[in-house]
User: Which sequence fits this backbone?
């Protein structure tokens, strides 16, 4: 098995030999020893057939789940050592989630949805409106602040979700099939937005099963049967390209 | 998360389902309104009866017979056990100014102005034989005329006047002649000399006639045949002597009187001052209110089940929203807080409108018997506390379920 690798200082999120097993009659290793370090400012795509462990990896990195074995470190903190409410706090402050189905609160306006993470992680109530306006303007929805999700198109909803993911300045933006529910053109707009965010220096990890979507990233991590099969570097013209590191265990 | 923030979010959830929230709070509203209404009615009755009585200054003492069993501290029974000798003995007790026996006459028919008056509207009238002294008590309020003086005179209460009005024809007023046919065949022709208020006469239409018409007698323990009465009304010489006279009467009646021998084992001779009677009435009313309040409280319980039920539905329905909130950093405690605040708001709204409705319905209901409005402040306080409690208790389990939602599962839902 792998030796424990010391994390470089600009690593925001890392897993070390993470293993997650579900018991469905017999044990199923959804993740079977995955080690992955995401440097600050990297843009990574995770690909793999269904059942390969993409969602499980996503849940671990997003602090929604903990590994049965191995370690997950977010912002220098070992997730397995944290209490339930500390993990919730970590999710709210270090991670920004973007989901395939947008997952906006249906009764809250765009601005309120964007600042929802502040409700749970920040006691200051002033300045929220300004923050929402700033972020929604950033994603091109400066004129939709008081619209509820049902009054917005799919692409607009995903932009609101993206703005929400950024509101607490997280270490990592986690996107789970962000274009899965969008048509090609709208999906392309969202991916362009991601590229812009990457250019601003944000760290992004995106799970997708579409090669075309994954190619917007700097590198693609290929998962097969709960293990990393290959890390593929993509030719991008970024001069300061950052790459993920993995421990090859086979 | 701040409380103001959870109130804002919960309020959004409540107003997002207006019909559902309304129906949910309706259970609480009806429960609390029922309690408040009964308390208003009870308070009104109490106030109405007691307002005319000055318990501090009345020198009247009542001697009645009570059954030992019974709700509200013994039920008064009408048994003729206080013999003429007892009356004589009581009047010799030091401090006693007068003794008035009281008894009812069995009337079969009452006619006035050519009309036969029967007990209409389900109410039956009664005829009481007594002496004029009786009208000096605080418990008897003459509103017109004066007590009867001689034979062939009578006093009626306002309920009797009302009963006469229901029959139609002439009104019953002072100076009118009443004809009463008694069960034993005698016929009394009485002229009305006075009218007492509606509280006098035990809530029934009633005619008060001179004691001479009463002739029930019993065989005394010593073997004589003597006239006997079911109740005595004793008047002390002054207010300061009421308690000593009461004690002396008790001493004599319980131990030496013929009545003590004539009563059965499950009967008790009760010597009551006006204050005792008031206390007894209040105690009875309190028990009645508590009982009815308990029944109304049941509907509150049902209402709280309604809140719990709807909150569980709400938690299930909003599983995904809970997942979203958890994904963006909501702690279990914060999810609990959100749902508890929501059910708390439902409870408080229910209590608020329940109190308003209860006071309104109570106020309207009071106009029928004409009782005064007494705002039951303590019960309003209790209602609000209960509303809050119901809200919290009904919300506990749903909130706990909400907090347990697994965000991974919740977010996968469509």
Assistant:
């Amino acid at each position: 098995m792998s030796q424990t690798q010391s994390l470089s200082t600009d690593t925001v999120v890392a897993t070390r030999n993470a293993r997650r097993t579900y018991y469905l009659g017999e044990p199923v290793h959804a993740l079977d020893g995955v080690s992955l370090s995401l440097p600050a400012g990297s843009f990574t795509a995770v690909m793999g057939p269904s059942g390969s462990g993409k969602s499980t990896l996503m849940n671990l990195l997003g602090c929604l789940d903990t590994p049965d074995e191995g370690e997950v470190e977010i912002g220098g903190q070992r997730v397995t050592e944290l209490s339930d409410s500390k993990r919730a706090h970590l999710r709210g402050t270090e991670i920004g989630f973007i989901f395939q189905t947008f997952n906006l609160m249906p009764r809250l306006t765009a601005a309120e949805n964007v600042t929802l993470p502040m409700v749970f992680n920040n006691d200051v109530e002033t300045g929220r409106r300004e923050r929402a306006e700033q972020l929604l303007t950033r994603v091109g929805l400066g004129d939709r602040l008081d619209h509820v999700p049902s009054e917005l198109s799919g692409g607009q909803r995903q932009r609101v979700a993206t703005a929400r993911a950024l509101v607490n300045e997280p270490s990592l933006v986690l996107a789970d099939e962000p274009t899965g529910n969008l048509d090609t053109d709208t999906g392309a707009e969202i991916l362009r937005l991601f590229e812009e965010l990457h250019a601003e220096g944000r760290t992004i990890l995106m799970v997708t099963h579409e090669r075309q979507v994954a190619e917007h990233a700097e590198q693609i991590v290929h998962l097969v049967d709960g293990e990393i099969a290959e890390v593929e570097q993509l030719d991008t013209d970024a001069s300061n390209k950052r790459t993920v590191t993995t421990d090859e265990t086979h | 998360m701040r409380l103001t923030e959870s109130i804002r979010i919960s309020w959004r959830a409540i107003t997002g389902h207006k019909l559902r929230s309304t129906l949910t709070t309706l259970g609480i509203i009806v429960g609390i309104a029922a309690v408040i209404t009964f308390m208003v009615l009870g308070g009104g009755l109490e106030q109405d009866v007691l307002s005319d009585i000055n318990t501090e200054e009345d020198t009247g003492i009542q001697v009645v017979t009570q059954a030992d069993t019974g709700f509200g501290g013994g039920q008064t029974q009408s048994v003729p056990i206080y013999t003429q000798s007892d009356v004589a003995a009581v009047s010799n007790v030091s401090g006693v100014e007068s003794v008035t026996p009281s008894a009812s006459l069995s009337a079969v028919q009452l006619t006035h102005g050519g009309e036969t008056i029967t007990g209409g509207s389900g109410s039956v009238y009664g005829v009481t034989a007594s002496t004029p002294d009786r009208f000096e008590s605080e418990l008897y309020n003459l509103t017109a005329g004066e007590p009867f003086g001689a034979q062939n005179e009578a006093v009626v209460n306002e309920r009797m006047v009302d009963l006469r009005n229901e029959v139609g024809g002439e009104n019953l007023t002072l100076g009118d002649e009443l004809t009463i046919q008694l069960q034993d065949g005698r016929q009394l022709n009485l002229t009305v000399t006075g009218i007492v208020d509606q509280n006098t006469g035990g809530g029934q239409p009633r005619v008060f006639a001179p004691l001479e018409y009463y002739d029930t007698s019993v065989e005394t323990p010593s073997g004589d045949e003597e006239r006997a009465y079911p109740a005595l009304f004793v008047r002390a010489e002054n207010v300061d002597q009421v308690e000593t006279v009461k004690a002396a009467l008790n001493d004599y009646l319980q131990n030496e009187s013929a009545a003590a021998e004539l009563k059965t084992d499950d009967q008790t001779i009760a010597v009551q001052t006006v204050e005792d009677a008031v206390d007894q009435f209040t105690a009875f009313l309190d028990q009645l209110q508590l009982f009815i309040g308990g029944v109304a409280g049941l509907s509150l319980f049902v209402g709280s089940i309604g809140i719990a039920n709807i909150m569980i539905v709400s938690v299930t329905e909003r599983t995904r929203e809970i997942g979203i909130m958890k994904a963006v950093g909501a702690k279990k405690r914060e999810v609990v807080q959100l749902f508890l605040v929501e059910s708390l708001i439902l409870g408080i709204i229910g209590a608020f409108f329940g109190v308003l409705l209860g006071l309104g319905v109570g106020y309207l209901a009071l106009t029928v018997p004409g009782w005064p409005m007494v705002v039951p402040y303590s019960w309003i306080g209790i209602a609000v506390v209960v509303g809050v409690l119901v809200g919290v208790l009904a919300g506990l389990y749903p909130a706990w379920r909400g907090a347990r939602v697994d965000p991974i599962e919740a977010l996968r839902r469509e």
Notes: The first strand of chain B starts at residue 60 and ends at 67. Chain B has eleven helices and 16 strands. Chain B has a mean pLDDT of 83. Residues 301 and 309 of chain B are 12 Å apart (CA to CA).
